[in-house]
User: Fold this.
Amino acid sequence: EKPSLYRVILLNDDFTPMDFVILVLKKFFLKSDAEATRVMMQVHNDGAGLAGVYTFEVAETKVYSVNEFSRRHKHPLKCIMEKE
Assistant:
């Protein structure tokens, strides 16, 4: 049986700079400049953007890593996961 998959989602806020969101997408999700910009605009315009779909352990690690990275850089950017 295939493992369950989880969507990793970035949530919009009014304080995190767009450049920081692009950095996160490139650093943690290996997005190209164009793809990172597209997802960042989705976060900005729609309130949330899909960063990727992963197995539970990978998704959990990415959520934790992004949230820690954002906190260390004093940005309120939040990353969550939800089952597909």
The chain has a mean pLDDT of 97. DSSP finds three helices and three strands in the chain. The two ends are 16 Å apart (CA to CA). The longest strand covers residues 48-55.
